[in-house]
Design goal:
Helix content is 29%, strand content 23%. The protein is of the alpha+beta class. A hairpin with a 3-residue loop joins strand 27 and strand 28.
Length: 726
């Protein structure tokens, strides 16, 4: 049913809630307990009397740097994107409403322990005080932030919503009323997903201290760099996701943590046996019929100058919401997409004082989307593959829908941390994860696949993992600079398989009298001489990347399910059996396209692979006629450790970066912390700020700045010191 809501097409700011004098006085009092020092890179160092004061200052500082990104993250988690972007977002919002219940978040807030409630109140107050003191800022929708908002998004991951293999298309297919079977959408690589984490033990570092390399690969400008300190023992430095109150990837004086996206099975799909009696639905369970729960969900959406509504009747079994229909069977989803325990875990790890305390935090078992690479100041290094892992009956393939009518398919509690795939202090002295299998995390010293159930680590190998193992085993006296050098290895290991197959096929199958021969002879010669490293001046990189993107999608598939073949094996199989028809026409297309655009196919990678940041819009615009800088890095998809994902846009002949390396940091845990970091573009989302692009050229070259961790160093390099509101 649709109906028009009168008046709501007026600007949201007209209905802005005013803050009471009591609230404003509370804001001001808390602000006086907070000092923000901006260093010469614009990085905010927030100092509060209490943890809650520090959170207040942290959220205030985030809003100063990019309020629109803070707001948009919560508009999304509230399932209200349609109110801004229209009917096309309805089913994205519906998915969020089915999986993240605001009623449950509010209830969690009410029952939160006093210490946590103080943090949640401070979160909301920090943002609301920013809005009060910046009346010129007009929110897109959220004029007053609520303290329960952080309980909608309890994990800092970019893609923390787990739906097994159920897609938005499945959901739309079911709830649009067009009840026909949907086809499962294969999990092809998401070019904005990924991360690298490396840890080095004292046995292979020059200083005898452990070193951690933090290298998330996310959409550009998704996380800023911060330090947050309190007199209650908080002192965390690193990357915080816009609008969240905890450092997601970073370090404190004792230890550091790096998260990579995990493919551990944390959500399962159940086929439900549905029976309709009259107007009511029932589902079969252990020989009995149980009523299907119905819930009305109303979503508003922008339509021209009006705000309209659509109400969905949604369905739930005890497993979870009905999300799809395939083969005439309803599919429910059992998941754990938000929880108060997850938020507690996200906070407490930032205050862990080393390996033993960090293990206690891991024992909360509420982190659903991350692997963790860890190092501490006692010389420990560690790796955990996932954290929240339900116990299941091994006779079922949990990558596929399982029978929801029997008790045998129910989860049987959670695996203890020491039952999960993990590795502590391996003899080789290093650990790595690049969204790849945990069974190569320490090379030959890695855990063994046969010791774990398949659902615990379905992840396969990828070319970054292959490259990381090769690179990290070279050095025996690592320093911070050598760690950064290793993290910036640009070898594209996929092409050591693909390019020889191309050359062999050309030389054996393409005859000199064939028209293909004259078209491709010179490009093939360039590729024959290539060392498989991407670089700014490399024509071979241009040819290889442009060509590989046109090959079989199977070689781009990173995330796999139980029993499936991984990217590396798929690429080897493809290369071993590829034909002239599969390999040559895509290269011809590349040569012709480059010649058409640039007058020659001999185009250096840096000429078309560019970094451009023109404005602070959420949806960036790119323009070949505006200034940009060359980048020599390539997509991590092909094995590059420094990830740079670029693409063409309508009207551009050049490719522009959209994600990859974002906040990068190498940290050494000695008697004093030593660290270097780098940020894509700069700290600020304001184009008028000198910190909008002040790290841009450094970013394109992999040149890091020194981290200012100690207050005396921050003060020596202070650009501005103030209380929130000043």
């Amino acid at each position: 049913m649709k109906k028009v809501i009168l008046l709501l097409f007026l600007p949201f700011s007209i209905f802005a809630q005013k803050f009471s004098s009591a609230e404003i006085n509370r804001f001001k009092q808390q602000a006086q307990r907070v000092n923000i020092i901006r260093d010469n890179w614009g990085i905010p160092h927030i100092y509060g009397k209490s943890d809650a004061d520090a959170v207040f200052g942290l959220l205030y500082a985030q809003c100063e740097d990019d309020f629109k990104r803070v707001e948009m993250n919560y508009i999304e988690k509230l399932g209200r994107i349609s109110e801004l972007k229209g009917e096309s977002e309805l089913y994205n919002d519906l998915q969020i409403r089915l999986l993240i219940d605001t009623t449950e978040a509010k209830a969690d807030y009410q029952k939160a322990a006093p210490w946590l409630k103080k943090l949640l109140n401070a979160y909301a107050d920090g943002i609301n005080y920013y809005l009060h003191t910046h009346p010129a800022v007009k929110p897109a929708m959220l004029n007053r932030f609520q303290p329960w908002y952080p309980l909608l998004w309890t994990d800092g991951s970019i893609g923390a919503i787990s739906t097994a293999d159920l897609s938005i298309a499945d959901l739309k297919n079911f709830y649009s009323g067009n009840l026909v079977s949907a086809v499962a959408v294969p999990k092809l690589s998401d070019h904005q997903t990924g991360s690298n984490g490396f840890a080095f033990s004292p046995k292979i570092t020059a200083s005898g201290n452990a070193i951690l390399y933090i290298n998330p690969h996310v959409t550009f400008y998704f996380r800023p760099e911060v330090q947050v300190v309190s007199e209650e023992g908080l002192n965390a430095y690193g990357a915080v996701t816009w609008g969240q109150m905890f450092v997601y990837q970073g370090f404190n004086p004792y230890c550091g943590w790096m998260h990579t996206s995990s493919n551990v099975d944390v959500a399962d799909v159940y086929t439900e046996k549905i029976i309709k009696k009259g107007e009511k639905y029932f589902y079969e369970y252990e020989g009995a019929l149980k009523p299907v729960t119905e819930k009305k969900i109303t979503i508003s959406y922008q339509s021209g100058n009006e705000l309209k509504q659509k109400t969905f009747t949604t369905y739930f079994t005890h497993h979870g919401p009905i999300m799809a229909k395939r083969d005439d069977k309803w599919l429910s989803l059992k998941s754990y997409n938000r929880s108060i325990i997850s938020l507690i875990q996200s906070w407490k790890r930032t205050k862990a004082k080393g390996f033993e305390e960090y293990k206690q935090v891991m024992a909360l078992k509420a982190n659903t989307s991350n692997n963790t690479v860890f190092a501490d100041n006692k010389g420990n290094i560690a790796y955990w593959h996932g954290n929240y892992i339900p116990k299941r009956d091994n006779q079922y393939n949990w990558a596929k829908p399982v029978d929801g009518s029997i008790a045998a398919t129910e989860w049987k509690g959670l695996h203890a941390v020491d039952e999960t795939v993990h590795l502590y202090n391996p003899v080789n002295g290093w650990l790595q994860n690049c969204n790849s299998t945990p069974f190569s995390v320490a090379g030959v010293n890695s855990p063994k696949r046969e010791n774990y159930p398949p659902y615990m680590a379905p992840d396969g190998e990828n070319f970054r993992g292959v490259n990381a193992v090769r690179v990290l085993d070279r050095e025996k006296k690592y320093t911070i600079d050598k760690v950064i050098e290793a993290g910036y290895d640009t070898y594209l290991s996929a092409f050591e398989i693909l390019i020889p197959a191309l050359i062999k096929t050309f030389e054996h199958e393409v005859k000199p009298n064939d028209s293909l021969y004259n078209q491709l002879k010179a490009p093939i010669e360039v590729l024959k001489k290539w060392d498989y490293h991407s670089s700014e001046h490399s024509v071979a990189t241009t040819l290889a990347v442009e060509w590989a993107q046109k090959l079989s999608p199977v070689i781009q598939r990173l995330y796999i399910d139980q029993g499936e073949t991984d990217q590396v094996e798929n690429t080897k199989r493809f290369a071993a059996n590829a034909t002239v028809a599969q390999l040559m026409p895509p290269l011809v297309t590349v040569v012709n396209d480059l010649t058409k655009k640039f007058g020659s196919w001999e185009v250096a990678w840096g000429e078309i692979n560019r970094f451009q940041r023109l404005n602070g819009d959420l949806q960036a615009k790119y323009n070949d006629n505006e200034p940009s800088v060359p980048v020599g890095f390539a997509s991590a998809l092909w094995g590059s450790l420094p990830s740079y994902n670029s693409r063409y846009y309508q009207g551009t002949n050049k490719r522009y970066g959209v994600g990859g390396n974002s906040f990068i940091c190498a940290v050494e845990f000695g008697k004093k912390i030593k660290a270097k970091s780098l940020l894509a573009g700069g700290e600020s989302g304001d184009p008028s700020s000198k910190h909008f692009n002040d790290q841009l050229l450094m970013y394109t070259k992999g040149k890091f700045k020194d981290v200012l961790f100690y207050k005396e160093d921050v003060l020596k390099n202070a650009e501005k010191t103030y209380h929130p509101g000043e």
